[in-house]
């Protein structure tokens, strides 16, 4: 292909193939990844049913780590390979690993068939999924950016952001379709494997398309000129000039983008189902329609960044999100479940407890067991999506929940009577809430469908504004010889950790404060910090020549230079990174 800065206005057939292959590959790979989360309840019964509680805790923790915490390690592994061997073959390998791992989960016998080997193999396959996901996005972003004309790089790279919405939608459609065709009993028994096995078709399509691609022209010219890095990891993160840019990318860009993405998709879905009591099918339908409506705006905001700059588009999106989240989520309550809103105002709830007995319930794996009466009371109300006021008790007696004029004592979840006490407390709390007018589920007749959908679309538009130009910014911040490596780590730390831990962190804040909206302080705080760092430190990258050192990059100190690919290694020396 021709130099990417001198391309015409028309997109060639090869250009379209680049965009389709990179975008569809990311859709399929994220689809594979989301399946394990969507089918978590069924999977736990299949693979962990006979595991003792201690081992089950370890396996659950590892399974969670594969989803989020492992992604940055995958970015390091595949980023280095991508900078040394090439973009095409690296992300061809990542999608193959992801697809094969997913397909094998669909074939894996359960605990009842092969015993302890089932959860061990399952965790191993999930680790492979997490590692490969860590290399996919950065590979696609780098590959597309290095093909795109400089004047259209924002619009072209925005295509690979669309999987952030479409992949979740695709996984839900396949799961719900299989459940509808097979029936609940058959789906629970064996039909849950069908969505995993279907990944073989998606994998074959992705590999077939990607095999037709050529290597990135920018990378190819770099290799011909012998300007590659022999130590991309050390050069990307061992030199302050490059590490500084990675930190700016993380704290001045990706951290905020990640929490906007997770708030608009996952936390909004959680809020609809857990707090506002909307049934899962209806909530998924609302989110799905909003995502479909917003998806074209990824391209629009990417193209806008080609005109006005990347930084203004992203920073304005972050600023609006920081101020809009509380009104938008309060609006959801008003238009989706007005009966709940009325009950909260008419019959406020209080938890009366000794503050010393109350824990901060950060429980990302869902395996922690809270036993104090205060924790029991707060956990029950937080899971029910109810706001409450904390009232300090003057003694260390059992905590109790006050609903209107009724008081329900909680219990200590230890001892032989714990199960009976749990049943007693749940029944008494449910009775008091019903008496006070708290709805057990959202009434479809009272939902203002138009306004609810409009609010969800607003949340989706904030995602597209902050996420659309991100790939272009990341690709333009780093030189070609270390681009894959340098892009991978900040992106995967931001989305794997800052975004991935959002639901658990938000739930813990809600449980501690008693305010159903308090969990929003986590994304708002991250967004505010990202906005400040970004405004001060994030460079404007629009118009950057990908084959030259970035203009905003300080000169490289002589004593920090690493040899290029054509420099002969020292005798007996190993490849340093």
UniProtKB/TrEMBL annotation:
Keyword annotations from UniProtKB, A to Z: Cell membrane, Membrane, Transmembrane, Transmembrane helix, Transport
Chief location category: membrane
**Organism domain of life:** Bacteria
Q: Which SUPFAM superfamilies does the entry link to?
A: MFS general substrate transporter (SSF103473)
> Which parts pass through the membrane?
20-43, 55-77, 89-108, 114-135, 156-182, 194-213, 247-268, 280-301, 313-332, 449-475, 496-514, 520-538
Q: Tell me the segments the record calls region Disordered.
A: 547-577
Provide the topology term for how it sits in the membrane: Multi-pass membrane protein
**Which compartments does it reside in?**
Cell membrane
Gene3D superfamilies documented for this protein:
MFS general substrate transporter like domains
Q: Give the matching PROSITE patterns.
A: MFS (PS50850), SUGAR_TRANSPORT_2 (PS00217)
- Stretches assigned to the Major facilitator superfamily (MFS) profile domain: 18-542
* Name of the protein in its database record: Sialic acid transporter NanT
| Source organism per UniProt | Paraburkholderia nemoris
């Amino acid at each position: 292909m021709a130099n990417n800065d001198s391309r015409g206005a028309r997109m060639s057939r090869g250009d379209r193939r680049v965009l389709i292959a990179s975008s569809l590959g990311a859709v399929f790979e994220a689809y594979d990844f989301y399946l394990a989360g969507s089918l978590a309840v069924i999977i736990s019964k299949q693979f962990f049913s006979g595991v003792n509680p201690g081992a089950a805790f370890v396996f659950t923790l590892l399974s969670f780590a594969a989803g989020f915490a492992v992604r940055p390690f995958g970015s390091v592994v595949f980023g280095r390979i991508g900078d040394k061997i090439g973009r095409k073959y690296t992300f061809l390998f990542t999608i193959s690993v992801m697809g094969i791992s997913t397909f094998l989960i669909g074939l894996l016998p359960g605990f009842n068939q092969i015993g302890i080997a089932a959860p061990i193999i399952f965790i191993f396959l999930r680790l492979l999924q997490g590692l490969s996901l860590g290399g996919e996005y950065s590979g696609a972003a780098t590959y597309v950016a290095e093909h795109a004309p400089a004047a259209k790089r924002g619009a072209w790279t925005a295509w690979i952001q669309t999987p952030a919405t479409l992949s979740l939608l695709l996984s839900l459609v396949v799961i719900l379709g299989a459940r509808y065709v097979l029936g609940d009993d058959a789906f629970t028994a064996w039909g849950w494997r069908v969505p995993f096995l279907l990944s073989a078709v998606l994998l074959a399509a992705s590999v077939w398309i990607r095999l037709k691609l050529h290597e990135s022209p920018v990378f190819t010219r770099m290799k011909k000129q012998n300007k590659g890095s022999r130590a991309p990891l050390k050069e990307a993160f061992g030199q302050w000039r490059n590490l500084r840019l990675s930190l700016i990318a993380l704290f001045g860009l990706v951290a905020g983008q990640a929490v906007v993405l997770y708030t608009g998709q996952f936390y909004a879905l959680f809020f609809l189902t857990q707090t506002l009591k909307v049934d899962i099918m209806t909530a998924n339908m609302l989110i799905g329609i909003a995502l479909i409506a917003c998806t074209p705006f990824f391209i629009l905001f990417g193209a806008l960044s080609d005109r006005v700059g990347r930084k203004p588009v992203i920073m304005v999106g972050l600023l609006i999100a920081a101020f809009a989240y509380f009104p938008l989520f309060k609006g959801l309550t008003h238009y989706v479940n007005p009966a709940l809103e009325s009950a909260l105002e008419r019959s406020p709830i209080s938890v009366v407890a000794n503050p010393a007995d109350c824990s901060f319930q950060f429980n990302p794996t869902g395996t922690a067991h809270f036993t104090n009466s205060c924790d029991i009371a707060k956990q029950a109300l937080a899971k029910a999506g109810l706001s409450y006021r904390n009232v300090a008790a003057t003694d260390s007696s059992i905590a109790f929940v006050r609903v209107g004029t009724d008081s329900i004592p909680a219990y200590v979840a230890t001892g032989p009577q714990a199960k009976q006490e749990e049943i007693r407390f749940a029944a008494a709390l449910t009775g008091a809430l019903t008496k006070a007018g708290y709805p057990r589920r959202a009434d479809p007749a009272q939902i203002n469908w138009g306004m609810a959908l409009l609010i969800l679309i607003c949340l989706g538009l904030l995602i597209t504004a902050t996420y659309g130009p991100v790939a272009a910014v990341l690709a333009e911040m780093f030189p070609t010889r270390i681009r894959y490596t340098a892009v991978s780590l900040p992106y995967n730390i931001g989305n794997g950790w800052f975004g991935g831990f959002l639901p658990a962190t938000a739930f813990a804040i809600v449980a501690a404060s008693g305010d159903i909206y308090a969990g929003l302080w986590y994304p708002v705080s991250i967004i505010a910090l990202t906005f400040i760092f970004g405004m001060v430190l994030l460079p404007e990258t629009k118009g950057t020549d990908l084959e030259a050192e970035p203009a905003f990059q300080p000169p490289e100190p002589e004593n920090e230079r690493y040899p290029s690919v054509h420099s002969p290694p020292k005798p007996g020396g190993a490849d340093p990174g």
